[in-house]
Amino acid sequence: MKDLIGKLVDVYGPSGHEGQVRALIEGLARDAADEIRTDAMGNLIALKRGTGGGKRIMIAAHMDEIALIVSYVDKKGFLRVGRVGGVFLPTLIGSQVRFANGVTGVVAREKWLTGGSTSQLPKWEEVYIDVGATSPEDAPVGVGDVGVFVQPFADLGTRIVGKAMDDRVGCAIALQALRTMGESPNDVYFCFTVQEEVGTRGALVSAFGVEPEVGVAIDVTDTGDTPESQPMSVSLGEGPAIKVMDSGFLTHPGVKDWMIGSAERLDIPYQLEVLLAGSTDARAIQTSRAGVPAGCISIPTRYVHTQSEMVDMGDVEGSVRLLVDLVTQPVTF
Ligand code: CO
Ligand code: ZN
Q1: Cβ neighbours of residue 23 closer than 8 Å, sequence gap 6 or more
Q2: pLDDT band, residue 202 (cuts 50/70/90)
Q3: Which domains does the chain have, with CATH numbers?
Q4: Less crowded by CB within 10 Å, the N or C end of the chain?
Q5: Percent helix, strand, coil in the chain (nearest 5)?
Q6: Any catalytic annotation for residue 35?
Q7: How many whole angstroms from 136 Cα to the centroid of ligand 1?
Q8: What are the C-alpha distances in Å from 333 to residues 17, 95, 190, 288, 321?
Q9: Catalytic residue among 18, 65, 196, 238
Q10: What does the CA dihedral 11, 15, 17, 21 come to, rounded to 10 degrees?
């Protein structure tokens, strides 16, 4: 499982450019799925057909990661940038990004070594990427090219760290559930979605395509267990978090009880999550068509939307067990 997550996080896949992640997942999912297809937006949908009498369940894990996009190349070859998804300024300066063509750049800021520049946060207009070019003609990337963080996967033992753990860890959990689940009455559609970080766009269209009767997103959530962090009742290593609410979503009560019932029956430690900022693909599924009961299994994650997102393997394993049970039991609400 660690190897699988390590492979997934290291792949290039900003929102709108998920092709490499999709190819990797498709190769790993093909043998386990009864049908596999890619829709017009690029969502990968792997169906595990049920034995009959069950429901159509949609599982969503997003393939895309946050990134920087080049908006302008100046006379000296420095690249001005915009954000693709929620990149934070405080973690940015001095980091490296890699573009689709393999070019690496350093994220830097104006007024380097002038008063306060190393102790104060820059404004977004002051941020640029240095790819070692000296002119626009010389720059190996240009306007519209997208760079993702460079940060090698790190195995700390029980805990692992990488860029794009949001949401490749969710992809790994969904993939593992697909590959290990036994027979089920339900038709289970494992959807590896695009463009979540720019507003859950892929999940929305795949929910129209799949027409699920129940939806479950698998995504990361913040924790409240680091020094003087926001008070939040989610900690690393205490089990998968069953979402109750986030800033864009209220879990369907039937789905919440279904998840809690499963965790308790299998003795999987779990936590209840109320996330005050941020949302997931579950919101898009829930508000598609005439409405779909939906919920979310959240993987507690430290340092979300930085280059070094940390998760706990116990939480990951618990999430796989919970997901397999949910999709293989009759849905009773
Ligand atoms: Co995210
Ligand atoms: Zn996410």
Answers
A1: none
A2: very high
A3: 2-65+163-328 (3.40.630.10), 67-149 (2.40.30.40)
A4: C
A5: 25, 30, 45
A6: no
A7: 32
A8: 38, 48, 21, 19, 20
A9: 196
A10: 30
